[in-house]
Design a protein that fits this description.
Radius of gyration: 22 Å
CATH architecture of one domain: Beta Barrel
Strand content: 15-25%
Strand order of the largest sheet: 1-2-3-4
Largest sheet: 4 strands, antiparallel
Structural class: alpha+beta
Number of helices: 4
Length: 197
């Protein structure tokens, strides 16, 4: 082995762990990294939607009965005055009528302009974000002005009815667009503010 080769090898060896570590965290367009909090994601089933666990809010109004009620009792008349802000997060500019989903400590939130986010519900930290590329001036054309009330979760997917008249399914662990289907021509002023149920 020549002195030049040995020197290059000695210089390159200390960099090897950084190279390997860097490769582990580089996302490719086909396979985004899964945030740690979402690695053990359990797919949502029909039974979970029929009988949601108290700590989850996985459908519009928290269940098929549409009561909008949570059986949790940690907050009550005796301690409600002691509540303090733990975190807050700015949302996309525009009208907000959204009801977020909460599933096993993850908050799934839709913002105006077809932006969907997964947040750590305990800290507000962003885990992933999906931004749909929309046709120009779509909000004025459809008349919805980017209003949303909710998104839906089922199996390992988050579903969104988009401003340009598509239904899309996002991977709940990564936010990657898994599939989409056009339900109408948005130029016909088709609009939907509620999430697909």
């Amino acid at each position: 082995m020549t002195k030049c080769t040995l020197t290059l090898l000695v210089v390159a060896l200390p960099l090897l762990p950084f190279s390997v570590a860097a490769q582990r965290f580089v996302a490719t367009p086909d396979k985004p990294p899964i945030p740690e909090k979402l690695k053990n994601f359990v797919p949502v089933t029909d039974e979970m939607l029929r009988q949601p666990r108290a700590e989850n809010w996985i459908s519009f109004r928290n269940g098929y009965n549409l009561w909008g009620y949570s059986p949790l009792d940690q907050i009550n008349v005796g301690n409600v005055g002691q509540l303090r802000l733990v975190w807050s997060r700015a949302m996309q500019t525009g009208p907000q009528e959204v009801e977020p989903l909460v599933y096993n400590g993850i908050m799934f939130l839709v913002n105006s302009e077809d932006i969907v986010q997964a947040l750590d519900a305990t800290s507000g930290d962003l885990l992933w974000e999906y931004k749909r590329k929309l046709p120009p001036n779509i909000g004025n054309l459809t008349g919805t002005a980017y209003r949303y009330r909710n998104i839906s979760i089922y199996d390992d997917k988050i579903f969104l009815a988009t401003n340009d008249a598509h239904i899309i399914a996002l991977d709940a662990q990564t936010g990657k667009d898994m599939w989409e289907t056009e339900r109408a021509n948005y130029k016909d002023q088709v609009a939907q503010t509620a999430g697909p149920i």
